[in-house]
Amino acid sequence: MKNEKMVIDKNSFIPPYYQLAQILEQQIRSGQYRPGDTLPSEAELSEKYGLSRMTVRRSLSQLARAGLIYSEQGKGTFVSRPRLDRAVFVMEEFHTEMAARGLVSSVRLMEARVVPAPQKAATKLQVPVGEKVLYIRRSLLADGEPMAYDRKYLRYDRGRPILENELQYQALPEMVEKHGEVLPVSSQMTLQATVLNEEEARALRVAPGTPAFLLEQILFDNTERPVGWGWCLYRGDRYQLSSQSPIF
Amino acid sequence: MKNEKMVIDKNSFIPPYYQLAQILEQQIRSGQYRPGDTLPSEAELSEKYGLSRMTVRRSLSQLARAGLIYSEQGKGTFVSRPRLDRAVFVMEEFHTEMAARGLVSSVRLMEARVVPAPQKAATKLQVPVGEKVLYIRRSLLADGEPMAYDRKYLRYDRGRPILENELQYQALPEMVEKHGEVLPVSSQMTLQATVLNEEEARALRVAPGTPAFLLEQILFDNTERPVGWGWCLYRGDRYQLSSQSPIF
DNA sequence: GAGTGGTCTAGACCACGCC
DNA sequence: GCGTGGTCTAGACCACTCT
Question: Pick from B4, B34, B78, B85: most CB atoms within 10 A?
Answer without folding.
Answer: B85
